[in-house]
Request: fold
Amino acid sequence: MRYKRSRFWRIIGVAGVLAMVAAWPEISLAQLPGILPPLPPLPIGGGTQTLTGQASAVAAVVFGNVISIVDTGTLSSASDPLGTSESIVSMSGFAAEALQAATMAWSDQVASEASLGNMALTLAGTTISADFIMSRALAVSGAGGQGLSDIEGLRIGGVPISPTGVPNESISLPGLNLTLNEQIQSASGIVVNALRIRTLDGLIDVIIGSAKAGI
Amino acid sequence: MRRTIYRLAATPLLVIVGLMVRTADAHFVPAPCDFITGGGWVIGDSGAKVNFGAHGGCKHGAFWGHVNVLDHTTSPPAHLKSTEITGYLMDPNFPNARDICGFGEVTFNGGTFTTRFRVRMEDNGEPGGSDRFGVRLESGYDLTTRELGPTGPTGGGGNIQLHKPNPSTTGPSPAPTEEEMCGTLTTP
Reply:
């Protein structure tokens, strides 16, 4: 019961923030830095490897508030794979179905994945929707990171958009900046954000389908 | 001498019986156990979309995973959300496929009930158009296993990935039978 109450208030809180997002006017300010924290550096001295893994269907920073929906949390070891899911998420300004996220590791690699279907997001008056969104991140020891994004049925303001599949494809809209298949490489791994939407003022930064893997 | 002849005759018979038993119980917990993950949609028999997101496997001597399925035949869509994973199986005839069994909460037509489910997820490489998904519920719902793609009015989309085993992917010991994991539900 305590869990249900806590979850209720969390959803109410998120709905409130997203409602503010939907109505927020365009302001020009510096953009926020990346939502996900940077991957840790490789351990020095040949000790045990540091694993980094996390996946979330939605990760956002809205007016300084960090919001995550269907988030695995941080992977702590190869012996503890993490997963979570939700059938439907529906709140003011955002809706999606069949959300799932999982992260897992082996002695030599880490894999993370997030996906969701029938996604619709309204931000600064623009509705962005997709039939399906998935991000995958794989980090293999000594071989760096590999990323994959799958965005199907993308529409912006009702207009169909065909992603090129090239990493870090950028689309500029009035008041918004979209990045498709964002891939942030580091020495130890990769962060893959299938769809990232930022207001030009930098106050709102929403990632749909985020997967992180590092080793 | 007679005992030796009996033994020689009995040995092939025992092997045959053993193979027959193995064939009858063709689905079993993979050894070593592993993981499967994926999401996407297929077109149901009604022509409506069926969205899914699921992952499953073995973890520390137990089964692990989450399964969500939404069928848009009705509005609002009927949906299944797993509450317990009771089995993770493979069929040697389909080495890239895994079945996840369990119990879930179904919301349909304004009501909610609990039922046993069995989903099949099959990873046939990249991109995911050749991957396959199906689901069967004890309550009677049946979506036979079908390909995700191609994307379009008659196809679906998404991607399924079968992951290799790791040190945590140990299943229950002894491994339960297919019936113990899935009841009477067969592969969709």
Remarks:
- Chain B touches chain A through 40 residues (CB under 8 Å).
- The mean pLDDT of chain B is 87.
